[in-house]
Design goal:
InterPro entries: DHPA_dOase_Mn/Fe, Glyas_Bleomycin-R_OHBP_Dase, Glyas_Fos-R_dOase_dom, GlyoxalaseI/FosfomycinResist, VOC_core. The protein has two domains: 5-119, 2,3-Dihydroxybiphenyl 1,2-Dioxygenase, domain 1; 137-297, 2,3-Dihydroxybiphenyl 1,2-Dioxygenase, domain 1, CATH 3.10.180.10. The protein contains five helices and 17 strands. It has helices spanning 18-28, 74-86, 153-163, 213-225, 293-297; strands at residues 5-15, 32-36, 40-44, 54-58, 63-71, 91-94, 105-109, 115-119, 142-150, 167-173, 179-185, 193-197, 202-209, 232-238, 245-250, 256-261, 274-277. The longest helix has 13 residues, at 74-86.
Length: 327
Amino acid sequence: MNFDIIRTARAILHVTDLEKSRDFYVKGLGLIETESDDSTIYLRGLEEHVHHSLVLKKADTPNIEVTSYKVRSEADLDSLAVFFEQRGMKTKWLEEGSQHAIGRALRVQDISGLPIEFFAKMDAAERMLQRYDLYQGAKAQRIDHFNNMVPDVQKAYDFYINELGFACSEYTADDDDKIWAAWIHRKPSVHDVAFMNGQGPRVHHVAFWLSDPMALIQGCDVLASLGYADNIERGPARHGLSNAFFLYLRDPDGHRIELYNGDYLTSDPDFKPVRWELNDKRRQTFWGAEAPDCWFNEASTVLDVHTGEQVTTAPGKLKQAKPIFVI
């Protein structure tokens, strides 16, 4: 392949109430508001040096418009366009100036029907890492990864690994050794994107990196004091998969957000993916606590990059959705 995808870069969420969303993401999660108008809010993490990593767009219905990856150069965008077109995957160019604070971008529906975007250039912004006087809420540092529900995880895995150049850090397999979920990356961490078996294509969650586990605990205190206790869906706890400390919560429109800290380095070319059995209860929560059914069943719907219509979903090919807990 003759293109270089660097990392997870941004997500565009459609929300129904900008003020409620601003309160949640700025006061609760601690993201920095770079800029806003009557229809859009641009947010970034404390350590991020670019204009935004999260865009909130006012809409009648909550959806995910696109999840985006940064590439190394403008030439990589051209190479990706050729790559997709050769495979019969229709692309859409958004020229520089058509989106605020971002350069030329390429959008496409991926092999599973998820709307994805690639770009090389974004406007710079002040890095707030040492502006401790501005820290609030969970003190979110940067965007980290996406997790998607798709009907055929093996198909998504093969495409991203063999065609787009991602690498696998960990995966879950069933008794027939079929992949139920996979965590794959371009940056040298556990993942930039994960795929799990389920009704899809849908976006399960968008994750933000925190500086340490205590930031996550303090974030829980702030969220509860702001009235968001009922928005906390799962955790805080530690994943077996990834070894990360986590908290899942739902924003005012039901989009799932993960606060995340503590995975590990995956840069070595001879790193061997870690395999988890589907019924090992430690894979989802290392301490053994069971995840709620909604965590396996609910996710955000996505839009077609060409029509703007909601993408039709299909059930997962593999039937089992959560571990069987044997007492």
